[in-house]
Amino acid sequence: MKLSEIKPLLTKQKELLFQLPDGSLVPEHFHVTEVGKVVKHFIDCGGTERKEEVINFQLWSADDYNHRLHPEKLLHIIELSEKVLKLNDTEIEVEYQGQTIQKFGLEFSNDRFLLTSKQTDCLAKEQCGIPEKKPTLKMVSAESAGACTPGGGCC
Fold first, then answer.
1. Is residue 144 pLDDT above 60, yes or no?
2. Radius of gyration over alpha carbons of the chain, in Å?
3. Tens-digit pLDDT profile for residues 70-79
4. 141: which residues sit within 8 A by CB, 6+ positions away?
């Protein structure tokens, strides 16, 4: 989800619900402790220089059970961040504390924000000699496919 996609959603929501990939919800008393611009400047394993930019939301579950972050407050934080940090309309990445700091993608469905799993990948497979995965085809016998066979009585 990009920044331009979350803002209109926040104007329509009465509450903020973030759902983890396992289906559980981030506790209602969470805080968004950071909205940031993260620029990653790197060289991949094939020697190509790359730059990636994401907008980062850091969610934190505090022991403060009396306060809830409301959609309009998060929208205000985002708008302030846009001005101060000069945010572009890029993808949002969400950090949340699991066994370690976990990073998630962000989607929206059924009045809740879904934290989606992210995967690492090699960006230079052709340079590394990693073959492209080809789809696995399932072979079906003529009999199980319902094809005519000698003596099968279908012809």
1. no
2. 23
3. 999 999 999 9
4. none
Contacts of 77 (CB under 8 A, 6+ apart): 32, 35
pLDDT for 154: 60
Among 59, 60, 54, 47, which Cα is nearest to 3's? 54
Q: Is the pLDDT of residue 135 over 90?
A: no
Residue from 35, 24, 23 nearest 93 by CA: 35
User: What is the structure's pLDDT at 67?
Assistant: 75
What is the C-alpha to C-alpha distance for residues 115 and 9, in angstroms, rounded to an integer?
Answer: 15
* pTM (global) more than 0.90: no
DSSP for the chain?
-BHHHHHHHHHH-SS--EE-TTSPBPPTTEEEEEEEEEEEEEE-TTS-EEEEEEEEEEEEE-S-TT----HHHHHHHHHHHHHHHT--S-BEEEEEESSSEEEEEEEEETTEEEEEE-----S-HHHHTPPPP-PPPPP--TTTTT---TTSS--
